[in-house]
Design goal:
By secondary structure, the chain is α/β, with parallel strands linked by helices. It contains 11 helices and 5 strands. The chain has a 5-stranded parallel beta sheet with strand order 3-2-1-4-5, sandwiched between helices. Helix 7 (112-121) links the parallel strand 2 and strand 3. The longest helix has 12 residues, at 29-40.
Protein backbone atom coordinates (compact mmCIF):
# COMPACT_ATOMS: atom_id res chain seq x y z
CA UNK A 1 0.00 0.00 0.00
CA UNK A 2 1.42 3.34 -1.03
CA UNK A 3 1.43 6.17 1.48
CA UNK A 4 4.00 8.64 0.14
CA UNK A 5 4.01 10.42 -3.23
CA UNK A 6 7.23 12.25 -4.14
CA UNK A 7 7.19 14.85 -6.93
CA UNK A 8 9.91 16.39 -9.03
CA UNK A 9 9.21 20.09 -9.63
CA UNK A 10 10.48 21.30 -13.03
CA UNK A 11 8.38 20.02 -15.95
CA UNK A 12 6.19 18.04 -13.53
CA UNK A 13 4.59 20.68 -11.30
CA UNK A 14 6.19 23.74 -12.89
CA UNK A 15 6.58 24.62 -16.55
CA UNK A 16 10.18 25.08 -17.63
CA UNK A 17 10.69 25.96 -21.29
CA UNK A 18 13.78 28.18 -21.66
CA UNK A 19 13.66 28.32 -25.46
CA UNK A 20 10.12 29.70 -25.46
CA UNK A 21 11.19 32.18 -22.78
CA UNK A 22 14.12 33.37 -24.91
CA UNK A 23 11.78 33.91 -27.87
CA UNK A 24 9.59 36.15 -25.70
CA UNK A 25 12.68 38.17 -24.81
CA UNK A 26 12.84 39.11 -28.50
CA UNK A 27 16.20 37.43 -28.98
CA UNK A 28 16.84 36.78 -32.66
CA UNK A 29 15.76 33.29 -33.69
CA UNK A 30 19.21 32.41 -35.02
CA UNK A 31 20.78 33.34 -31.65
CA UNK A 32 18.33 31.50 -29.36
CA UNK A 33 20.01 28.11 -29.67
CA UNK A 34 23.41 29.63 -28.94
CA UNK A 35 22.22 31.51 -25.84
CA UNK A 36 20.25 28.48 -24.64
CA UNK A 37 23.37 26.31 -24.76
CA UNK A 38 25.55 28.96 -23.14
CA UNK A 39 23.23 29.24 -20.14
CA UNK A 40 20.85 26.33 -19.69
CA UNK A 41 23.21 23.59 -20.85
CA UNK A 42 26.27 24.98 -19.11
CA UNK A 43 28.35 23.46 -16.35
CA UNK A 44 27.46 26.52 -14.27
CA UNK A 45 23.76 25.69 -14.51
CA UNK A 46 24.50 22.29 -12.94
CA UNK A 47 26.66 23.99 -10.31
CA UNK A 48 23.71 26.23 -9.45
CA UNK A 49 21.53 23.14 -8.96
CA UNK A 50 24.22 21.72 -6.71
CA UNK A 51 24.42 24.93 -4.66
CA UNK A 52 28.14 25.44 -5.15
CA UNK A 53 28.03 28.75 -7.04
CA UNK A 54 25.94 31.92 -6.84
CA UNK A 55 23.78 33.02 -9.74
CA UNK A 56 25.76 36.25 -10.05
CA UNK A 57 29.05 34.35 -10.29
CA UNK A 58 27.55 31.90 -12.77
CA UNK A 59 26.42 34.77 -14.96
CA UNK A 60 29.88 36.40 -14.86
CA UNK A 61 31.60 33.14 -15.87
CA UNK A 62 29.16 32.54 -18.72
CA UNK A 63 29.57 36.12 -19.99
CA UNK A 64 33.36 35.88 -19.84
CA UNK A 65 33.20 32.71 -21.89
CA UNK A 66 30.82 34.21 -24.45
CA UNK A 67 31.76 37.87 -24.45
CA UNK A 68 30.04 38.54 -27.79
CA UNK A 69 26.70 37.56 -26.25
CA UNK A 70 27.02 39.69 -23.10
CA UNK A 71 23.83 41.69 -23.65
CA UNK A 72 21.79 38.62 -24.56
CA UNK A 73 23.00 36.66 -21.53
CA UNK A 74 22.20 39.60 -19.24
CA UNK A 75 18.75 39.78 -20.82
CA UNK A 76 18.16 36.05 -20.45
CA UNK A 77 19.04 36.04 -16.75
CA UNK A 78 16.72 38.95 -16.06
CA UNK A 79 13.60 37.59 -14.30
CA UNK A 80 14.07 34.10 -15.76
CA UNK A 81 12.18 32.58 -12.81
CA UNK A 82 8.97 33.84 -14.42
CA UNK A 83 9.04 30.84 -16.77
CA UNK A 84 8.40 28.61 -13.73
CA UNK A 85 4.60 28.62 -13.81
CA UNK A 86 2.30 25.91 -12.41
CA UNK A 87 1.21 22.95 -14.53
CA UNK A 88 -2.44 23.12 -13.50
CA UNK A 89 -3.30 19.48 -14.18
CA UNK A 90 -0.52 18.20 -11.93
CA UNK A 91 -1.33 20.73 -9.21
CA UNK A 92 -4.91 19.42 -9.25
CA UNK A 93 -3.60 15.87 -8.76
CA UNK A 94 -1.46 17.12 -5.87
CA UNK A 95 -4.57 18.61 -4.21
CA UNK A 96 -6.55 15.40 -4.69
CA UNK A 97 -3.75 13.33 -3.17
CA UNK A 98 -3.65 15.68 -0.18
CA UNK A 99 -7.40 15.33 0.27
CA UNK A 100 -6.97 11.55 0.13
CA UNK A 101 -4.45 11.89 3.01
CA UNK A 102 -1.31 10.79 1.18
CA UNK A 103 1.96 12.22 2.44
CA UNK A 104 3.40 14.53 -0.21
CA UNK A 105 7.05 15.39 -0.78
CA UNK A 106 9.21 17.07 -3.43
CA UNK A 107 12.62 15.91 -4.62
CA UNK A 108 14.13 18.26 -7.16
CA UNK A 109 17.29 19.64 -8.72
CA UNK A 110 16.77 23.36 -8.20
CA UNK A 111 18.64 26.65 -7.76
CA UNK A 112 18.49 28.66 -4.52
CA UNK A 113 17.00 31.90 -5.88
CA UNK A 114 14.58 30.11 -8.20
CA UNK A 115 13.37 27.90 -5.35
CA UNK A 116 12.86 30.91 -3.08
CA UNK A 117 10.85 32.55 -5.87
CA UNK A 118 8.49 29.63 -6.57
CA UNK A 119 7.87 28.77 -2.92
CA UNK A 120 6.82 32.36 -2.22
CA UNK A 121 4.82 32.67 -5.41
CA UNK A 122 2.74 29.47 -5.43
CA UNK A 123 0.46 28.27 -2.63
CA UNK A 124 0.57 24.61 -3.68
CA UNK A 125 3.90 24.27 -1.85
CA UNK A 126 1.88 24.41 1.38
CA UNK A 127 0.45 20.99 0.48
CA UNK A 128 3.80 19.26 0.91
CA UNK A 129 4.78 17.47 4.08
CA UNK A 130 8.41 18.17 3.24
CA UNK A 131 11.02 17.78 0.58
CA UNK A 132 14.64 17.69 -0.50
CA UNK A 133 16.12 20.19 -2.93
CA UNK A 134 19.52 19.77 -4.53
CA UNK A 135 21.15 23.13 -3.72
CA UNK A 136 20.60 22.59 0.02
CA UNK A 137 22.07 19.09 0.06
CA UNK A 138 24.87 19.66 -2.50
CA UNK A 139 23.54 16.53 -4.22
CA UNK A 140 21.90 15.96 -7.60
CA UNK A 141 19.50 13.43 -9.03
CA UNK A 142 20.20 10.73 -10.16
CA UNK A 143 22.90 10.36 -7.47
CA UNK A 144 21.83 7.60 -5.10
CA UNK A 145 22.60 9.73 -2.04
CA UNK A 146 19.82 12.24 -2.76
CA UNK A 147 17.15 9.53 -2.81
CA UNK A 148 18.52 8.08 0.41
CA UNK A 149 18.44 11.58 1.88
CA UNK A 150 14.68 11.96 1.48
CA UNK A 151 14.08 8.43 2.77
CA UNK A 152 16.16 9.08 5.89
CA UNK A 153 15.01 12.65 6.49
CA UNK A 154 11.33 11.69 6.63
CA UNK A 155 11.70 8.07 7.72
CA UNK A 156 9.99 6.83 4.56
CA UNK A 157 9.66 3.21 3.57
CA UNK A 158 10.71 2.91 -0.10
CA UNK A 159 8.11 0.20 -0.76
CA UNK A 160 5.37 2.59 0.41
CA UNK A 161 6.56 5.43 -1.84
CA UNK A 162 6.06 6.53 -5.46
CA UNK A 163 8.40 9.00 -7.17
CA UNK A 164 7.36 11.07 -10.21
CA UNK A 165 9.93 12.68 -12.55
CA UNK A 166 10.12 13.69 -16.21
CA UNK A 167 13.71 12.44 -16.69
CA UNK A 168 14.30 8.73 -17.30
CA UNK A 169 17.66 8.68 -15.49
CA UNK A 170 16.09 10.22 -12.38
CA UNK A 171 13.29 7.65 -12.38
CA UNK A 172 15.85 4.86 -12.71
CA UNK A 173 17.84 6.36 -9.82
CA UNK A 174 14.81 6.11 -7.55
CA UNK A 175 14.18 2.54 -8.61
CA UNK A 176 17.71 1.61 -7.58
CA UNK A 177 16.76 2.41 -3.97
CA UNK A 178 13.51 0.45 -4.34
CA UNK A 179 11.15 3.41 -4.76
CA UNK A 180 8.39 2.74 -7.29
CA UNK A 181 8.62 5.42 -9.97
CA UNK A 182 6.60 7.00 -12.76
CA UNK A 183 8.12 8.74 -15.80
CA UNK A 184 6.00 11.88 -16.18
CA UNK A 185 4.73 12.87 -19.62
CA UNK A 186 1.51 14.78 -18.87
CA UNK A 187 -1.07 15.09 -16.06
CA UNK A 188 -3.61 12.80 -17.72
CA UNK A 189 -1.14 9.95 -18.09
CA UNK A 190 0.09 10.51 -14.53
CA UNK A 191 -3.44 10.16 -13.20
CA UNK A 192 -3.87 6.86 -15.03
CA UNK A 193 -0.54 5.48 -13.80
CA UNK A 194 -1.29 6.41 -10.21
CA UNK A 195 -4.63 4.63 -10.48
CA UNK A 196 -2.84 1.58 -11.88
CA UNK A 197 -0.78 1.48 -8.69
CA UNK A 198 -3.95 1.54 -6.61
CA UNK A 199 -3.59 5.14 -5.53
CA UNK A 200 -6.89 6.63 -4.44
CA UNK A 201 -7.46 9.33 -7.04
CA UNK A 202 -10.44 10.19 -9.28
Amino acid sequence: MYKNIIFDLGRVLLNFNPEEYLKKKNIEVERISEVYKEIFQSEEWIMLDKGIITEEDAKKIIINRSINNTDLIELAFENWYEILTPIDGTVEILKELKDAEYKLYFLSNFHLLAFEYVTKMYDFFKLFNGGVVSYEEKLLKPEEAIYKKIIEKYNLKPEESIFIDDVKENVEGARRVNIRSILFTNPGALREELRAYGVNIE
